[in-house]
Specification:
By secondary structure, this protein is an alpha+beta fold. The strands form five sheets. Strands 1-10-11-12-15-9-8-4 form an eight-stranded mixed sheet. A three-stranded mixed sheet has the order 7-13-14. It contains twelve helices and 17 strands. The protein starts with a helix and ends with a strand. It binds one RNA strand through helix 3 and helix 4.
RNA sequence: GGAGAGAUGGCUGAGUGGCCGAAAGCGAUCGCCUGCUAAGCGAUUGUACGCCCGUAAAAGGUGUACCGCGGGUUCAAAUCCCGCUCUCUCCGCCA
């Protein structure tokens, strides 16, 4: 959520920024509502002040056993008027709130202008794409041949976009998760957390999934619970409605969680394999930081994600999302894309974003400056470190051998009972 | 699932209709005192939204709201009534 005061004073600037994101928003309604809100507020507060004063007088009169019936009657009217105005105010604020909640974040000045993922500039590239003496297979063929991925039975158990992992396939996914958690906690300074995998409406609103993106979520019938689409939701909401001490910042958390996504509107996209699932595993890094450090923290966060691929020996490139490709809540995002030979393409395996104070304002996460005692919003960041399913895809496709087996990257072998290879 | 108790400021905890944004204590900050530390003394100590004054930004003044959340009664609600949520205790069930 943007700061209403800032929005009020910079309507035109914000409108231009949104235009670059491909969003044409009519702010005239906002300005009208905002003026209306302040007018009503002033009127109702004046009446309240009067009521408070007169009520005090009534108390004194009664104590002296004097007659107060005339002013009591008058105050009755004032109270009715207050009730009326309160209702008007509530309606106005509701519409205003809905409007502001639907406005995306303002992108950082360094975000390139563009309309789609075609316009995302590459900022870094690492590693050698493996050379194959044979036609590299897509991971779904490798996995089915090795009997470690079972898409048919996954679909039988739940439906399309669910997969059953078996044997060393299941072990590999678990190894990837544990390896990443150990790396981020042991070497990158993150504290591990294990969260609820469902979250309530307030939490979903705090991080920006709601109210706008309800159709992307799985909702648990007859409850206020949603399955989390990413650990970003529970982890960022750890500090919702809190004022933190400055000295605890920055806070780094890393969490494993399954992620549940409805994938509405992606029919026909990535229908085969593990790339786009209703349920997938992910290790997520989340940071709470002071505003002045958040862009440095974004760089470090992105490098932490990239480090996983370096250790696994998988080629990747990192792109900056252009204005038109940027997510709703983000001010700046880097995507890390791993090389996937079976698809002859780089595919997103991590997305690292700085939300600045956008989520913090929605979720009311603040900190108190020691020097001035002032309360300010923190900046929040998060990034996948990495998506486990897609990491398994990258491993299978990059490390596949002519005989159909898959070499296990050395970094993972301690997590796989020392196994070096997946064979039939 | 059944029965009961509770939710007040950073914390402990008082407050059953007006004198309560809220006693007291603790903690914290600033100042005084002491050679240092401790003790002691004094002051300050929430958040949000408006308005005024003013500014580079602030400071300052003033009003309103907030005692788990939502609604109701009343001229007036932390206080009375209703609904909800959460916490705790006991019983049942259970990984």
């Amino acid at each position: 959520m943007l700061d209403i005061k800032y929005l009020r004073q910079n309507v035109e600037l914000v409108r231009e920024k949104m235009e670059k994101r491909g969003k044409n928003i009519d702010f005239s309604r906002f300005s009208a509502l905002e003026t209306q809100r302040r007018d009503i507020l002033q009127e109702v507060e004046t009446l309240r002040a009067e009521r408070n004063n007169v009520s005090k007088q009534i108390g004194e009169l009664k104590k002296k056993k004097e007659d107060a019936s005339v002013i009591i009657a008058r105050m009755g009217e004032v109270s009715n008027k207050i009730k009326e105005l309160d209702e008007k105010l509530r309606v106005t604020e509701e519409e205003l709130g809905a409007f502001v909640m639907a406005v995306p974040n303002i992108q950082h000045a360094s975000v390139p202008v563009g309309t789609s993922s075609e316009d995302n500039p590459v900022v870094r590239q690492w590693g050698e794409k493996p050379a194959f003496a044979f036609e590299p297979k897509p991971h779904w063929e490798i996995g089915e041949n090795l009997q470690i991925l079972d898409f048919e039975r996954g679909a039988k158990i739940a439906g399309a976009r669910f997969t059953l992992y078996r044997g060393l396939g299941a072990t590999l996914e678990r190894a990837v998760i544990n390896f990443m958690l150990d790396l981020h906690t042991g070497e990158h300074g993150y504290v591990e957390v294990l969260t609820p995998f469902m979250a309530n409406r307030d939490s979903m609103t705090g991080t920006g999934q709601l109210p706008k993106f309800e159709e992307d979520l799985f909702h648990v019938d007859k409850t206020d619970y949603y399955l989390i689409p990413t650990a970003e939701v529970p982890v960022t909401n750890i500090y919702r409605d809190e004022i933190l001490e400055e000295k605890i910042l920055p806070v780094y958390y890393v969490a494993y969680s399954p992620c549940f996504r409805a994938e509405a509107g992606s029919y026909g996209k990535d229908t085969r394999g593990l790339i786009r699932q209703h349920q997938f595993n992910k290790v997520e890094m989340v940071k709470f930081v002071k505003p002045e450090t958040s862009y440095d923290e974004l760089e470090k966060l992105t490098l932490n994600a990239e480090e996983v691929l370096k250790r696994l020996g998988i080629a990747y490139r990192t792109v900056t999302l252009c204005s038109g490709d940027l997510g709703f809540s983000s001010a700046k995002t880097y995507d890390v894309e791993a090389w996937m030979p079976g698809q002859n393409a780089y595919r997103e395996i991590s997305s690292c974003s700085n939300f600045e104070d956008f989520q913090a304002r929605r979720a009311s996460i603040r900190f108190r400056r020691e020097e001035s005692d002032k309360v300010e919003f923190v900046h929040t960041l998060n990034g996948s470190g990495l998506a486990a399913g897609r990491t398994v895809v990258a491993i299978l496709e990059n490390y596949q051998q002519a005989d159909g087996s898959v070499i296990i990257p050395e970094a993972l072998r301690p997590y796989m009972r020392g196994k070096e290879k997946i064979t039939i």
